[in-house]
Amino acid sequence: MVELTGDDDVVAACEDDPLLVWAAQGMRAGVRAWALGEAVAVASPDLNRRDRLTVRGDAREVTRLVRLVLPELGPSYRLLGDRPLVEELAGRMGEVEPPKTFEWMDTDRPPPVSADREGAVVAAGWLRGADGEVGTLLAQASPSSWAVPGLPWIRRWAGLRESGGQLVATAADAWSCPRMGFVAGVATAAAARGRGYGQAVCRFVFAALAAEHGRVALMVDTDNRAAIGVYGRLGMKVRPVAAAVVSR
């Protein structure tokens, strides 16, 4: 087992895998990474509100690597990776609870030019001094949002207002890192849905983060087919992933 100490080392070891590149967070303080053969594991504290051990590689090698590094980590860490791998690891290591499944989506291209009614929508943009409004919108429209104003690693919020000035859609630049922009906290007011507002905000944020970081990603619940459809139309590709707590 070799500990990887630099961001470039992680990128090389994982073959520039977007999920692990994001997990490495530019190797910010507290992040650690290891390789064993072709297996790679990245331990990221407080990443998207969880302590995560993100893995890739052959299940047997990953199992060996995880068993070696888990004693160095606290009990709060949970596995994250491609769904078949995490499900196999959970079976091999003894799951504490069933794996949670969801979708990772990413792209390395800006969204395609809009050819629909978004042209008539008031332009989305970065917000200033609007944390209270964003918090109110999220509480009403997306109370289970993983991103809320005031959390660490949330850099900024984007939003869209109707002509009267009311904030009706929002999304956050959250847990981004030098090589990967990340989007969370996407929400649209219930009364304003179906008008393209959410898609307009996402189009703006995806384009901004893709230009700044080269790639942009997010996570979405598997059963949120409407959101997955919107993100797919904006150029993102689906990657089924899972998270699991395993015995030590």
Automatic annotation (TrEMBL):
* Protein known as: GNAT superfamily N-acetyltransferase
Show the InterPro entries listed in the entry: Acyl_CoA_acyltransferase, GNAT_dom
Q: Which residues form the signal peptide?
A: none
Provenance organism: Streptosporangium album
- Record-annotated N-acetyltransferase domain positions: 105-248
List keywords of the entry alphabetically. Answer: Transferase
> Which PROSITE patterns does the entry link to?
GNAT
| GO molecular function terms noted in the UniProt entry | acyltransferase activity, transferring groups other than amino-acyl groups
